[in-house]
Design brief:
Low-confidence stretches: 6-31
Number of helices: 8
Largest sheet: 5 strands, mixed
Distance between the termini: 34 Å
Strand content: 5-15%
Strand order of the largest sheet: 1-3-2-4-5
Mean pLDDT: 86
Number of strands: 5
Shape: globular
Order of helices and strands: HEEHEHHHHHEEH
Length: about 210
């Protein structure tokens, strides 16, 4: 599964920073906040293994990776968690940034992963009206999901994207397994092998 590549590596256009002058997700000294970086975590928060995905909700390769990664986590007996970070390929996917902002807005209502599921399921319908319909289906307050109200979440997307660039991300999905770039196949067996896990998700023992 080849990662999808953007046409350029410029930061997506999003609106102003918060009133305190510090980008969302940074400390006062400008350093990254670990809590911010790991805010959208799927699986056991105390899992010994972490897969970080820099992804784009409109990217078909990310859509194909979604069930693989969720199966890996669900079948790992609590050994693996998935952390999502935004990397919208806005130059090739016109609704990628809209979708990222909607997911952030849903996340503030405790529904990041349910909204992510809707966005992946309907990658061909990520316009404002469709996103509001997904929010209605999830029983969310839809007033902040799209348009100008969603721009309050723009700094979060900007920070993820900037961190991705700093970490060498150029396309989606880009995975980091326990902090190291992962370049092999995005399949449950390949990822279990990279993590040193048995089929049931427990660590392998070598004799």
């Amino acid at each position: 599964m080849a990662p999808e590549q953007p046409r350029d590596a410029h930061e997506p256009h999003v609106h102003e920073q918060p009133e305190d002058g510090h980008p969302l997700g940074t400390e006062a000294d400008g350093t990254a906040s670990e809590e911010f970086a790991e805010r959208w975590s799927y699986g056991n928060p105390e899992a010994p293994h972490t897969i970080v995905e820099f992804g784009d909700f409109e990217c078909p390769y990310c859509g194909a990776a979604k069930p693989v990664l969720h199966e890996l986590v669900s079948s790992s007996d609590g050994q693996v968690r998935l952390v999502w970070r935004h990397f919208p390929l806005y130059t090739v996917h016109p609704f990628a940034l809209t979708a990222a902002l909607a997911a952030e807005a849903a996340g503030q209502q405790g529904a990041f992963w349910p909204m992510a599921g809707q966005l992946f399921k309907h990658q061909d319908r990520l316009d404002d009206a469709s996103i509001i319909a997904y929010g209605d289906a999830l029983d969310l307050d839809t007033s902040t999901l799209v348009g100008e109200p969603a721009q309050q979440f723009a700094d979060a997307v900007r920070r993820d994207y900037a961190d991705g660039i700093a970490m060498g991300v150029h396309g989606t999905p880009t995975l980091f397994v326990d902090g190291e770039p992962y370049l092999d196949g995005v399949s449950v067996p390949d990822l279990r092998k990279a993590l040193g896990l048995s089929r049931r998700g427990t660590p392998r023992t070598f004799r």
